[in-house]
Please model this.
Amino acid sequence: MLFLTRAKKSYFGSEFNLRDETDDEIMQDVNSTMTDLATLVHDGILESDSEQLFTRIVQMCLEAILDILRELSQHYKSLFRIAHHYFLTEDYQFSQKILSGSFLFPPNSQGSTSNGEISTVSEYRHRFDGLFDLTRDWDVLPDLMDLDAIFDRPGSFITHMLRSTQLLINVNKNLGDAEQLFKITMLLSSEAFEEYLCETDQENLGKQAMEHCFNIHESRIAKAKGNRNNLDQIKVDIRRICNKLMEYPIYKQQAQQFLEKHDECITID
Model:
């Protein structure tokens, strides 16, 4: 990176002639990159320890993604990248908001996340809608326009949506949000995802979300042993979920098995 910074200041860099709009766009990107690198050199970060360098680069990436979202608020790749970043830093609640709610970015006026991570991202806060709208039963990406054009572009949109849906499931699993996982399971068996995922992926992800939902309720049962009132509420929740899931052939067997496994505290009709 130091060599690139020096190259920017060299005679050849200053004498580079632009020929057309494509060259102009390329040079804008080059100049932007060089400016970032020059900043790192000026701040002495390139000569510091790797942890400080990593933190600074992450902050610069978040700033760049924020610039994209200011122009294209439903840029799904940018939303995924931010959600994935906060998932890796174990800020699951903020990651959940990015994926399926609405959120302010940066997270607060001090530029720090809910787990105390300090950021130098722009102090101007913007509200954005999340990637998925889980309140809709027929289309979870209502603001995604011109779907045919997206499919025609290089890269696999379906593969990207597979990763995004997998992240959505993992975030709610780590939060222990059984209700959200149940909602995702139901949506994956409906028309909500059929334009964005292939049928096999829908089924596999739906079963995965259901399994995580059941695991959370199993933990609730274990913690509530001996407490009749808590067990009664768990019984109501599980019967409601399983009765609904058994309406779908792909979930019926697992839902029945789950009820039978816990018949000591759940009465089966």
